């Protein structure tokens, strides 16, 4: 799993930045989170990235750029949501 490399202490921060092409703020956030956390198997979850595109996410707020924790905590289990947009006329 790719996530395990973030917790591998033998890999330097510079090597991770090259390996994952981390840029400025994202790289800094990842390096800080790496120091503050340890791997937890229970934080690997399925995530609807886009409609019909289901991926895995490591659900640690220290790593996520925008976690929307207040909303997403309701969808950890078997809850479902219907997401729509509101069309506004000019």
TrEMBL record:
One Pfam family assigned to this protein is Type_ISP_C
Name the InterPro entries for this protein.
Answer: Type_ISP_LLaBIII_C
Where's the Type ISP restriction-modification enzyme LLaBIII C-terminal specificity domain? Answer: 27-87
Q: Which organism is it from?
A: marine sediment metagenome
The identity of this protein, by name, is Type ISP restriction-modification enzyme LLaBIII C-terminal specificity domain-containing protein
């Amino acid at each position: 799993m790719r996530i395990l490399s973030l917790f591998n202490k033998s890999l330097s921060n510079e090597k991770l930045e090259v390996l994952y092409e981390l840029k400025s703020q994202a790289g800094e956030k990842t390096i800080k989170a790496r120091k503050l956390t340890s791997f937890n198997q229970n934080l690997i979850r399925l995530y609807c990235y886009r409609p019909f595109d289901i991926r895995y996410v490591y659900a640690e707020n220290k790593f996520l750029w925008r976690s929307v924790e207040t909303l997403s905590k309701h969808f950890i289990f078997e809850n479902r949501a219907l997401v729509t947009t509101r069309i506004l006329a000019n």
